[in-house]
Amino acid sequence: MTVTVRFAPSPTGHIHIGNTRTALFNWLYAKKLNGRFILRFDDTDAERSRQEYADGIARDLAWLGIEPDQTVAQSGRFEHYDAAAEKLKAAGLLYPSYETPEELERRRKIRLSRRLPPVYGREALKLTDAEKSALEAEGRRPHWRFLLPNFADDPFVTSRTEVQWDDVVRGPQTVDLASMSDPVLIRADGTYLYTLPSVVDDIDLGVTHVIRGDDHVTNTGAQIALFRALGAEPPAFGHHNLLTTVSGEGLSKRTGALSVASLRDAGIEPMAVASLAVLIGTSENVAAASSMEELAALFDPTSTSKSAAKFDPAELSGLSRHLIQVMTFDDVQDRLAVLGIAGDEAEAFWLAVRGNLEAVAEAADWWSIVRAKPAQDAVLSEEDRIFVREAGKHLPQEPWDAETWRVWTAAVKAGTGRKGRGLFMPLRIALTGREQGPELAGLLPLLGREETLARLS
């Protein structure tokens, strides 16, 4: 059996780092077991689903390094869902209900007042054909509920019915179907809710493992029952903890919270996002993995905590910086070329500036400073201007190398008496136009003696 997983976002917004956690758990699980990864767009909500969001999700996954083996859209599979619904209706397992939301809420409150579980009482099963016709004559259209197998002979006399599974993440789990209402599978307007299309697709696409957020644990009992009602063996299930902000708030596609697109635009490295999304809330230390292969070696779904994982977005910047600082020129050569950084000096330049970058794109600013002119972020006092002109008199002759800065500043110190910040800061400002930046020992050979003298004068 080939392990087959799926990531099933609704294309109603941009995916955020919490969605990314689910996608990566599935991708890494398949990667470790030489399995298949399916990207399934749950786009049955025609009003809210947008192709631009589907394209954006695919682009975000590709940026992270996730390459689906198959991509499917639910909007093209309605005939499969219709056939499954008819099969359930014929078996008496999908029945019409006519209650309004107000009527359902009133019944819920009555049950609570009687200290009964607030579950649907299956009143719709008592309706005669004449009563159904009368309700429809009033303009009511039914929603359709799946009859849970939580009774022996009489559906109005439920009994404890345990559904058990060995969760890939959480270990042994049990859900009592008697504690649940019969789930609505089809709305009154004829559109499908998530459950039926999802189960049908998992059956048809041969999904062997469903790994998702732990907000679906309770739903799993009903879905396992639905798999069996359709004559299929349920897949294995795994439920990972959810990510929240430091304040404990959930993430939402609608608000764009920490969207993958915004993180990419901010220059965060994809492996920083992947590493944090996967490792936070597990027994592993959160560290930046350099590749998916390395992250897969660290990934163990059973090490995931059962409580929500809170994280600080600032952690992403730290992880991203670490990744950039250890990147070789070969790692970034193509990206630098896009920024216009190429030629014989490109590698030496990268090694000189990488330790000072928050994002690879910032290298373009330093390339401009080295190749064109200093920035204008800081200015010299008149006293310091006199000093840097004097410092120029002590410049060594070429050729220059990584030792030139040390030799030069030693000579300047001996000739002027300046030392420490009073020596180094004016030289940095004169050469780069900034008070902070890469080590000048690496930049000086790139500037060359003629350009350095010009900037000191």
From TrEMBL:
EC number(s) on file: 6.1.1.17
GO biological process: glutamyl-tRNA aminoacylation
NCBIfam families with a match to the protein in the record: gltX_bact (TIGR00464)
Protein's UniProt keywords contain Metal-binding: no
CDD domains: GluRS_core
Name of encoding gene: gltX
Any one GO molecular function term: ATP binding
GO CC, alphabetical: cytoplasm
Motif ('KMSKS' region): 250-254
Positions bound to ATP: K253
Segments forming domain Aminoacyl-tRNA synthetase class I anticodon-binding: 378-456
Function of the molecule: Catalyzes the attachment of glutamate to tRNA(Glu) in a two-step reaction: glutamate is first activated by ATP to form Glu-AMP and then transferred to the acceptor end of tRNA(Glu).
Compartments, as annotated in UniProt: Cytoplasm
The name this protein goes by in its record: Glutamate--tRNA ligase
Quaternary structure (record): Monomer.
Family from the record: Belongs to the class-I aminoacyl-tRNA synthetase family. Glutamate--tRNA ligase type 1 subfamily.
Gene3D superfamilies: 1.10.10.350, HUPs
HAMAP family: Glu_tRNA_synth_type1
Entry keyword set: Aminoacyl-tRNA synthetase, ATP-binding, Cytoplasm, Ligase, Nucleotide-binding, Protein biosynthesis
